[in-house]
User: What shape does this take?
Amino acid sequence: MKKYILMLIAIIFIAAIVFTGPGNGKTKAVKEDGVLSVNDIQSDPAAYKGTVTITGVVSRISGPNQRTFMLVDTHEAKLCKSTHCAKFYLPVQAQVALPKEWDEVNVTGSFVQGGKIFQAAKVEVIRHLTF
Assistant: This one.
């Protein structure tokens, strides 16, 4: 009887670990409206396959022919009142009209080059932030 109780406790313990333990790092939470923040994708951009929408603030525009801009997390930009204190900068390439620095944008597209660059098919300016 005691052996069966110990076995049952062991099974419950293992099941609890399996069902409440951390994921494999590849499961990504998408917000209610389906839009991710820059910090949401920071840990593993290559894990996002297909078309996604990411929101952030334009920190600077650069690259060949001015077709690349850097996106930072909106919350970080508002908190710092600067786009130069972000922990992570997402490089975005776009062949559409580019936003201005400090524009909060939604970019829709997919990751290329193994997740190093986000290729935006659509850039939607939400608002221009001023401090």
